Amino acid sequence: MTIFVYCIQNGYLVTMKISSSDLGKQAYHKVKQMIVSKKLLPGQKIVQEQLAEQLGISRTPLRDALQRLEAELLVESIPRRGVVVRQFNDREIVEIYECRIALEVTAVRLFAEKAQQSQIDGLRKLLEPFEHTNEIDEKAYQKADSNFHDTIIKRSGNQFLYQLFQKGNLLVCIDAIGLVRPPKETLQEHLDIVTAIHNRDGAKAASLLKEHLEKSKRLIVENPGYEN
Amino acid sequence: MTIFVYCIQNGYLVTMKISSSDLGKQAYHKVKQMIVSKKLLPGQKIVQEQLAEQLGISRTPLRDALQRLEAELLVESIPRRGVVVRQFNDREIVEIYECRIALEVTAVRLFAEKAQQSQIDGLRKLLEPFEHTNEIDEKAYQKADSNFHDTIIKRSGNQFLYQLFQKGNLLVCIDAIGLVRPPKETLQEHLDIVTAIHNRDGAKAASLLKEHLEKSKRLIVENPGYEN
DNA sequence: ATACAAAAATTGTCATTAATTCTTTTGGAA
DNA sequence: TTCCAAAAGAATTAATGACAATTTTTGTAT
After folding, report:
1. CA neighbours within 13 Å on the CB side: how many for A32?
2. Could you give the percent of chain A with pLDDT greater than 70?
3. Calpha distance B94→A156 (Å, rounded)
4. Residue B161: what are its φ and ψ, rounded to 5°?
5. Residue B165 in contact with residue B154, Cβ under 8 Å?
6. Where are the domains of chain B?
7. CA–C1' distance A11–D2 (Å)?
8. How far is CA B167 from CA A20, A111, B163, B221, in A?
9. Which residue ranges of chain A lie beneath pLDDT 70?
């Protein structure tokens, strides 16, 4: 399918084609979705021809997609053996958390210092539905939580940091891990962070977020089954 | 070419073939080298057929390589338009530095807390050739500097962090940027950091490294030509 | 059960074809 | 003539299918 877009460029009306024919990128998103939604299980081998047929494409764009996913550490490719969905053990999850803390704390400081007021308000709005209520829908909260952290990183103003988050796939991994602590506990922490941002207190926001994330990390470390 | 490796696996002698036939990975390393060594210039378009012929391979493995390099942010692919070598402006270099600071400060804390004594000694040895001398060879120092920081990250014990550094290509970018400050200035800072690590003072090492990197970052920001 | 050999499945690579973009040429109006 | 727009042609990328190399599975004999 091809879509035509008309726009003004250098004062002239130009027609631009936006072709949705990039099978590689499409496949990338689909396979990523399949991994996150556990349709492809960790450790499972991906048979290329089979999956390609399932997606209705040939192997070349699928291989492109797998290449990307390997770079994002979501799959592992062993030459001549094939590609398997990567699985993270507890030690690796803690490693991921440590990286996340390092980058996200930096992001929140930048956000507090530079973000526009409307962006701060937007962040605040994400939390509203869950205030003043006892029955918190876990699924909705998880989504809001994910959005909350994503917004801070995306709007930090440091685009490279955001790319690193995506390419390093920290967000996806963290989504896959799911909620570590109950909403009741984390909601207040989120609110406090927003307050600090609102006051443009970057250092305070950073230390609050750090403690917020460290708590979750500690829970994973102290989890039975964690091997040091 | 095929190489056979003999090794003991589960108590049995096993022969393993290591085929260097992975053209994709080979091409990846070659092209990466070409970018770092400026044989392919920033902004330059890569014509796939041309480069493939130059490397003596077909376009399929070259595309694999470019896919990887795109994930590492070293090249940029515009669908149906081609692949160009990515160039970083000052603003992006600062962004890269901010990410580097976040991750490397975390790494040095872990290193100070967990590293074996021999690793700390190894770090110290890297600096020795440049002490007690007035004539510092810039090139040799740059290599030592690069090794110094690489060691801290690699031996932090957090493998994911190291992968993130590689995939995010922070190290390569930083190598490409080169020395920001004169050796005389940074050598003493490096020595102080080693001392803190030697004393297992993670917090001290972290704050010293942070200041060390922040100084370089500030120099870039204050550089004429930096657009905020 | 174990070890080996043959068969099947799967991956990596290439050459070809189709689709898209870029460049040049052509034609017409100011 | 000069400028712009449309059309034709060349160049380049994307995708498909086919083939060869390699691994995994299956079957058979020890």
Report:
1. 22
2. 89
3. 13
4. -60, -40
5. no
6. 23-85, 90-222
7. 20
8. 28, 25, 6, 25
9. 1-21, 224-228
CATH of domain B90-222: 1.20.120.530
In angstroms, the Cα distances linking A185 to A141, A146, A190, A212, B137 are 12, 16, 9, 10, 56
CA triplet A64, B31, A173: central angle to 5 degrees?
Answer: 45
Provide mean pLDDT across the span B158-179: 80
Provide the residue type at B84 as one letter.
V
User: What is the signed CA dihedral for A14, B75, A155, A101, rounded to 10 degrees?
Assistant: 170
Write down the pLDDT at residue A48.
94
Please name the residues in contact with B9: beta carbons below 8 A apart, sequence gap of 6 or more. Answer: none
Q: Which helix (H) or strand (E) holds B152?
A: helix B138-154
Measured CA to CA, the distance from residue A33 to residue A172 in angstroms comes to 10
Angle at B227 between CA B224 and CA B228, to 5 degrees: 125
Asked if B81 CB < 7 A from strand C, the reply is yes
* 3-state DSSP assignment of residue B190: helix
Structurally, what CATH architecture does the domain formed by A23-85 represent?
A: Orthogonal Bundle (1.10)
Q: How many residues does chain A have?
A: 228
Count CB-CB contacts under 10 A for residue B205. Answer: 27
- Give the burial class of A14: count Cβ atoms within 10 A of its Cβ; 0-12 exposed, 13-18 middle, 19 or more buried: exposed
Per-residue pLDDT of B184-197, as tens digits, reads 999 999 999 999 99
Q: Which helix (H) or strand (E) holds B49?
A: helix B48-55
Q: CA torsion B160→A212→A183→A194, rounded to 10°?
A: -120
DSSP percent split of chain B into helix, strand, coil, nearest 5: 65, 10, 25
Give residues with Cβ within 8 angstroms of B111, minimum separation 6.
B119, B152, B155, B156, B157, B197, B205
Query: The tokens of B228 are what?
Result: 């905020």
Amino acid A170 reads L
- Tens of pLDDT, residue by residue over B60-100, are 999 989 988 888 888 999 888 999 998 888 888 899 899 99
Residue nearest to nucleotide D17 (CA to C1'): A58
Return the amino acid letter for B115. A
Is residue B20 over pLDDT 50? Answer: no
**Residue A15, beta-bridge partner list:** A6
For an interface test with B, give the residue of A48, A76, A108, A158 to mutate (most B CBs within 10 A). Answer: A158
Backbone angles phi, psi at A126, to 5 degrees: -60, -30
Nucleotides of D under 7 A from a protein CB: 5, 12-18, 21-24
DSSP-derived letter for residue B158 is -
Which amino acid, residue B64?
A: D
